[in-house]
Design goal:
- The chain is α+β, with helices and mostly antiparallel strands.
- It has a domain at 292-382: Sandwich (HSP40/DNAj peptide-binding domain).
- The protein is built from eleven helices and 15 strands.
């Protein structure tokens, strides 16, 4: 997640959740939007695909507590209208100042007052990137040791169809963050050109203005806090300087909703010769309109008529592989009875397949024709037994 993403992108709005949303609320919103916008449900819809990527990027950040905290702090730092949040008069170095710095117009450790651009200069950078690298630096510094260090693991999300979960597939997963664009090498400018220093802020990314006895700074509006202006954007990345990182993975047959896949060595690169971290992919399986899952078993509700329930019948049942399947309904079957078809369920991790569980649902017609009504009346006379006889005995005892 770049500084530009932190400042410009509203991930909460992308998911349609408030800023104080819980992790569960964020996950629920993401899964709902992922189902609606998934490319499999919107073939050829470029807008839906772009929105799906936007939602996935927002979830990558907000579902991670550390990245969400950094994002919230960065957004607060560049709150509109008053410069960086917590850096106003009397801020006392709050809101993220490194130790030893006072607020705007305050005395720092070296005496004298300074504005936000002074902090940028002392930070050794002409733009916001260096400042954020220090404010939100992860992991131990150089003093933590000189030996090899394993790279961090990367978490990603993948949404697949119900059918793909049963058959397995090879696909690509979008990794959080971005890699430098190969065409412009991360500059964002068309090859053969280069970004120019913003004349308004002179490359600092912020502009200062005096208000009373204080020097206030805010992000430069002309370059949007970047310090540079791109006159000829790169056609490949459209001036962002970034491209999506994609990783090909193999999803095994029979994977369940919420299951995690670990791809060794596909996380962040190690340091000083250390091994790379791993990629952990959480798989979300879209619901099916007809079938359900219960472990390795597939489930389906089979409607039958009153006559089929009473007399018995051979009823065709749909299957995911479109192979004809006939289920025998025994005479006298009641609604809710479960019939089992061996070996027609989902693949098991250790080999073999689960079963297909067919739940019978006896459907009573809501309206009867005169002929059907007469037939049911004759049937009622032909059935002498009372299905509520045990209740009748209890009622007579009460009386």
């Amino acid at each position: 997640m770049s500084v530009r993403d932190m400042v410009e992108k509203d991930y909460y709005a992308a998911l349609g959740v408030p800023k104080d949303a819980t992790t569960a609320d964020i996950k629920k919103a993401y899964r709902r939007l992922a189902r609606e916008l998934h490319p499999d449900k919107n073939p050829g819809d470029a807008k839906a695909e772009a929105r799906f990527k936007e939602v996935s990027e927002a979830y990558d950040v907000l579902s991670d507590d550390t990245r969400r905290r950094e994002y919230d702090e960065a957004r607060a730092l560049f709150a509109s209208g008053g410069g960086p949040a917590g850096y106003g008069p009397g801020g006392g170095g709050g809101g993220g100042y490194p130790p030893g710095y006072g607020g705007f117009g305050q005395q720092g450790s070296g005496g004298g007052s300074f504005a936000f651009d002074d902090l940028l200069r002392e930070n050794g950078s002409g733009n916001l990137g260096g400042l954020f690298d220090n404010l939100f630096q992860r992991g131990p510094g150089p003093s933590a040791g000189r030996g090899p260090k394993r790279g961090t693991d990367i978490a990603a999300e993948l949404t697949i169809s119900f059918e793909d979960a049963l058959t397995g597939l090879e696909t690509t997963v979008r990794l959080p963050g971005a890699a430098p664009c190969a065409q412009c090498h991360g500059s964002g400018a068309r090859p053969g050109s280069s970004p120019r220093t913003c004349p308004t802020c002179r490359g600092l990314g912020v502009v200062s203005r005096s208000q009373g006895g204080f020097a206030l700074s805010e992000p430069c509006r002309d370059c949007r806090g970047l310090g540079t202006i791109i006159d000829q954007p790169c056609p490949e990345c459209r001036g962002s300087g970034r491209r999506e990182r994609m990783q090909k993975i193999r999803v095994p047959a029979g994977i369940a909703d919420g299951q995690k896949l670990r791809v060794r060595g596909r996380g962040s690169a190690g340091e000083r010769g250390g091994p790379a971290g791993d990629l952990e992919v959480t798989v979300h399986v879209l619901a099916h309109a007809i079938f359900g899952r219960d472990g390795a078993n597939l489930t389906i509700i089979l409607p039958i008529s009153v006559a089929e329930a009473a007399l018995g019948a051979s009823v065709k049942v749909p299957t995911l592989d479109r192979t004809p399947l006939t289920v025998k309904v025994p005479p006298g079957t009641s609604s809710g009875r479960r019939l089992r078809v061996r070996g027609r369920g989902a693949p098991r991790a250790g080999g073999g397949r689960g079963d297909l569980i067919v739940t019978v649902d006896v459907v009573v017609p809501p309206k009867l024709s005169p002929k059907a009504r007469a037939a049911f009346q004759e049937l009622a006379k032909a059935l002498p037994e009372d299905p509520r006889e045990h209740l009748t005995v209890l009622l007579e005892d009460r009386a």
